[in-house]
């Protein structure tokens, strides 16, 4: 459990757990420190993704399912013990949402609160263009066309093959 979960301020008598899911390029240091700012009734933990910090020697996860299954299996016992809430930022928001759905579907467990920042809701119209970009087995041309349609990359940069 320690390799996946960082808890800087253990509070075994806490009434609720707040599990934080960091953004893609982050580790646990910033979010795990939130425990300083909460009362003793809340224990703050942070998910450590593969390929980061003490898991640096592990390969990055190849898909969302493997991340969700690992997190669910490690957290399941603790989440059955007392109420819990999830906070996710950016990539972490999508992971915590997927973990919450998995916990509800498979085990009937739900967070008392789901806090999301730095991301759109999965059903949002802002996400729909992202779903139109082919990722698996896509050619460079298909990926480039999808990125161009999103408008997030200047067209003059897309003309260079090395970009």
Automatic annotation (TrEMBL):
Example of a GO biological process term: monocarboxylic acid metabolic process
Any single Pfam family the record assigns to this protein: Thioesterase
Domain Thioesterase: 17-161
A GO MF term: fatty acyl-[ACP] hydrolase activity
Gene3D superfamilies: alpha/beta hydrolase
The EC number(s) this enzyme carries: 3.1.2.14
Family to which this protein belongs: Belongs to the thioesterase family.
Name by which UniProt lists this protein: oleoyl-[acyl-carrier-protein] hydrolase
């Amino acid at each position: 459990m320690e390799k996946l979960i960082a808890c800087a301020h253990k509070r075994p008598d806490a009434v609720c757990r707040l599990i934080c899911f960091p953004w893609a390029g982050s580790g646990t240091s910033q979010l795990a420190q939130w425990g300083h700012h909460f009362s003793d009734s809340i224990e703050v933990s942070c998910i450590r993704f593969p390929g980061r910090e003490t898991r640096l020697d592990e390969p990055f996860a190849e898909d969302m399912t493997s991340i969700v299954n690992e997190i669910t299996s490690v957290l399941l016992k603790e989440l059955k013990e007392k109420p819990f809430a999830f906070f996710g930022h950016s990539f972490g928001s999508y992971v915590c949402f997927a973990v919450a759905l998995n916990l509800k579907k498979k085990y009937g467990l739900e967070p008392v609160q789901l806090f999301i920042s730095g991301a759109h809701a999965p059903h949002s119209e802002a996400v729909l263009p992202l779903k139109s970009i082919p990722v698996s087995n896509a050619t460079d041309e298909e990926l480039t066309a999808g990125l161009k349609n999103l408008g997030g990359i200047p067209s003059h940069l897309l003309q260079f093959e090395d970009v």
